Write the structure tokens for this entry.
Amino acid sequence: DALTFASNIPHISLSDSTTQTIATINTPQQITFDTVLHETKIFLIGNTFKVDESGNYVLLFSPLINSVGANKALDIWVKVNGVDVPNSNSKITIASANDQKRVSCTIPMTLEEDDELTLWMTGDSTGLSLISYPAGTSPDRPASPSLFLTVDRLN
């Protein structure tokens, strides 16, 4: 297992295989996860991840954003213990209708033992979504999750 070398370092790696659509324009909604790829000392409880050790962390998320309309914007940010993390928002604009974009966002942060993190999104259209695709054939290829997320302690 490639991840065994870091078995004592707090880490979580998650993905989601569902499509998550903006339900109501300009209304925050919590992002969900359905797959834990690896976890050590950071644990997923519902759609909240809890940190077992204080330290400096880096959070990386990579959503696949779809828009049915042109010039539509989606915001994704982090909350710790229910409070928005300053400067954690990523605003992603999809310029063309029926277009998609996979982006990667990195957020450094200092966390305390028992801190709880959640990921949130809002958008200016109900035509925006984090979209997933099942595995394909001709040629064979793996599924494409709507979102990847990792959190790693740096020290």
